Amino acid sequence: MPCMEATHGSGMGGQGARPVVVLADDDDAITSNLAPFLERAGLTVHVAPDGEAALELVKRLDPDGCILDVLMPRLDGREVLRRLRADGRWLPVVLLTQVGESTERAIALDEGADDYLNKPFDPHELLARLRAVLRRARPGRRPLSASPALRAGDLRLDRIARRAWFRDAELVLTPKAMLLLDYLLTHPDELMTRDRLLEVLWGFDFPVGTRAVDNRIAELRRVLDDDPVRPQWIATVPGQGYRFVASVDEVR
Amino acid sequence: MTRLVPGLQPWLLLLVPVLAGAALGAALQVTEPETRLYATASPALLAGMAGLLATIVLAGLALARRRAAAAAAAADAAVRDAVAKATQERLRFLMRLDHELKNPLTAIRAGLANIEHADAAATADASAGAAVASVSAQANRITQLLGDLRKLADLETREIEAAPVDLPGLLREVSEATAAIPAAGERIIRVNVPRAPWPLPLIEGDRDLLFIALQNLVANAVKFSAPGDTVEVRASEDGSWVLLEVADTGTGIPEDEIGEVWHELARGRAARSIPGTGIGLALVRVIATRHGGHVAIRSRVGQGTVVGIRLPVQARTETAPAVAEPRQRSDPRGKVPA
User: Fold this and answer.
1) Could you report the per-residue pLDDT of B90-138, keeping only the tens digit for each?
2) Quick one: CA dihedral A84, A90, A92, A94, positive or negative?
3) First-to-last C-alpha distance (Å) of chain B
4) Which runs of consecutive H residues, i.e. helices, occur in B161-319?
5) DSSP β-ladder status, A115-118 and A93-97
6) Does residue A207 sit in helix, strand or coil?
7) At a CB cut-off of 8 Å and minimum separation 6, what does A17 contact?
8) What is the pLDDT of residue A161?
9) Digit-coded pLDDT (tens) for B190-222
10) Does A52 touch chain B (CB under 8 A)?
11) Of A4, A3, A1, A2, residue with least CA distance to A139
12) Which of B109, B165, B204, B246 to substitute to test the interface with A, most A CBs within 10 Å?
C-alpha cells in the first residue's frame, strides 16, 4: 500500500520561497545549460545524472517539482516516476519525451506525469510548463494527472478505460477528442494555445491547420452542450487558444 | 491441370491425344506396311501411346508455366522485400539522427537562452546581439527540420484513423483556410467540387491528415506562383477512385527536377530563395499512401503545375449510382495509371 507522508511538498513552496526542483538528465550539456537558466528564473535546481540519483535526491530533498528525462541510465525517467507515485509522492513531474512518439505521450499521461515536453524544446516553454504544474500542485494530494478518474460538474471521466459520461449518458467521442478531453480535464484553468493542443493530439506541430484543433473542440462543445458565447466548459481565448473553465476534482 | 494452362479451352486439350493418336497411326501405316493389320487391330495400343504422349506434353507445359510463375512471384517478393527493407532502414536512420541531434540542440537552445537573459551588457553590443539572434534563428531552423523529418517517420508508422470523410465539406474547409496562407489573397483561387450527376462519394480516412495534405498543396501552389496567377482545387471520381487536384499557373518545375519532388528535403533550384524545409510534398505522398492512394505531378516551366492525389472509394452510400457494365473487382491498393 502506498502511504502518504504528511510532510510532503509542504516546506519549500511557501510564499516568497524559491521553489526547489530536481532536474534529471544524463547529458551534461543539457543540465549545465538548463540548470542556470532555471536558477535565473527563480528556481533552486538540483541536478541528477541518472534515474537512481534522481530518486535519491527527491527522497532526500522533498522538492516542489521534478523534471525527468525519459532515456537515462540505471533507471529511466518513466520507472523513476512509477516508483515515486507508488511511494505516494505526488510532486509535479514533467517528463522529457521523444518527438512524435504518440504511445509515449499516452503512457506519460497514464503513469501520472503532470506534463511532458518533446526534445529539443524551447527552454522558455519548459519554464512555462514547470510554473504551471507548480501552481497547480496540491501539496500532499494526488495531482489530477495521476488520478484514474475525474469529475467536473455533470461530467465524469474514467481515464484508464478512456470513457466519459455526461449527465449519466456515456459520451461517444473520436479517439482524438477523448485525448483532448483528458488533457483539458487534467490541466484546468490553464491557457492552451492551439499549437500546444495540436501537439497533444498529434505529438508534433503542423505548419498549417490548427483547424484540426478547432474541429475537436467543436466536437467536445457539441457533446457537452456548451455555448461558446457563454461557456461553462471550454472558453475561447481570442487570438490565443482555449481554456477549460469548469472546476475539476478527482473521483475517490 | 487446366488451371495451370490458362487461356486454353479445356475441350481443346482433349483433341491433343486424338490428333496425336491419328498422327502416330498414319506414321506407322506409311513406314511399316506389315504392321498395318496389327495397327488396325490394336486401337487400344494407339490410344495408350497417344495418351502417354499427351500427358508428357501437358506435364511439360504445366511445369514450364509453374516455373515462370514462381520466378515472377519470387521477383515480386524480392522487390517488395527490398522496398520494405529500404523503408525500415530509412526510418531507423531518421530515428537515430533524431536521437543524436535532439540533445545537442536542446543544450544549444538552453545555452542561447542563458546568454540572452544573463548578459544584457553583452547583447547590448549590436554585433554580439545580432550574432546571438542569428545563431538562435539557425538553431530554431534545425529544430524545425528535425521535427519535420521525425513527423514523416511517425506518419509512416502510426495508426491512421479510418472514419468516413465527407469530401465536399473537407474541400470547403480547405478553400476557407486559404485565407490564412500568406499572399493567397493575390491569387485567383477557384474550388471546383462536382455536384452533378451525383456528389462525391464518401472515402475513409483521417480527415485532419487529408486536410493537411490539401492545405500543403495549396500553400505550395501559392508559394510558386505570382500575384494574378490562378490556383484551382478540383475533385472528380470514376466510381472506384476519387481524384483531388491542385493546379496552378505558376513557375512550374524543370523536367530534371520533377522526379525528385516527392523526396524529403528535395528543394528545387527555384525554391532556394523561398523559405521552407522541403518536406511538404513528401508529407503529401506519405498521407496519400497511408490512405491506400497515389500521388502524381505534371508540370511545365513557365506554365504551371498540377498535383493529384488519387484515393480509393471505400464506402459506397446507398445513393451510389448503378453501374451498367459488370464492375471489375480490383484491389483498391493496386496500381492505377496516374
Assistant:
1) 888 887 888 888 899 999 999 999 888 766 666 667 788 888 888 989 9
2) positive
3) 37
4) 167-177, 207-223, 255-258, 280-290
5) parallel
6) coil
7) none
8) 85
9) 999 998 898 999 899 988 889 889 988 999 999
10) no
11) A4
12) B109
pLDDT at A5: 38
Under an 8 A CB cutoff, do B109 and A121 touch? yes
Kindly list the distances between the CA atom of residue B274 and the CA atoms of A129, B148, B262, B278, in Å, as whole numbers in the listed order.
Answer: 34, 17, 18, 10
CB of A195 within 8 Å of any CB in chain B?
Answer: no
Q: Which residues of A touch B216 (CB under 8 A)?
A: 208
Q: What are B257's three cell numbers?
A: 527536377
Side-chain half-sphere exposure of A219, counting CA atoms within 13 A: 17
ipTM of the complex as predicted = 0.78
Strand order in the sheet with A249-250: A169-170, A163-166, A155-158, A149-152, A249-250
Query: Which residue stretches of chain A have pLDDT < 50?
Result: 1-15, 208
**B9 to chain A nearest CA, in Å?**
54
B-facing residues of A in 111-130 (CB < 8 A) are 119-124
Tens of pLDDT, residues A209-230: 567 788 889 989 999 999 888 9
Grid cell at residue A194: 492551439
DSSP conformational letter for B9: -
Q: Which of B106, B113, B177 sits opposite A119 (nearest CB)?
A: B106
Residue written as grid cell 520507472 = A79
Question: For residue B31, what is the DSSP state?
Answer: H
The amino acid that residue A223 corresponds to is: V
State phi, psi for B190 to the nearest 5 degrees.
-120, 140
* Biggest distance spanned by C-alpha atoms of chain B: 124
pLDDT for the residue B303: 94
Gap between the Cα atoms of A51 and B139, Å rounded: 29
| Residue B38 pLDDT exceeds 70 | no
Query: Which among B118, B132, B123 has a CA at the least distance from the CA of A39?
Result: B118
Q: A19 vs chain B: nearest CA distance in angstroms?
A: 19
Q: What is the DSSP string of B132-161?
A: HHHHHHHHHHHHHHHHHHHHHHHHHHSPPP
DSSP 8-state class, residue B327 = P
Among B98, B110, B219, the residue with its CB nearest the CB of A33 is B110
Q: Does A218 touch chain B (CB under 8 A)?
A: no
Give me the residue label for grid cell 497547480. Answer: A136
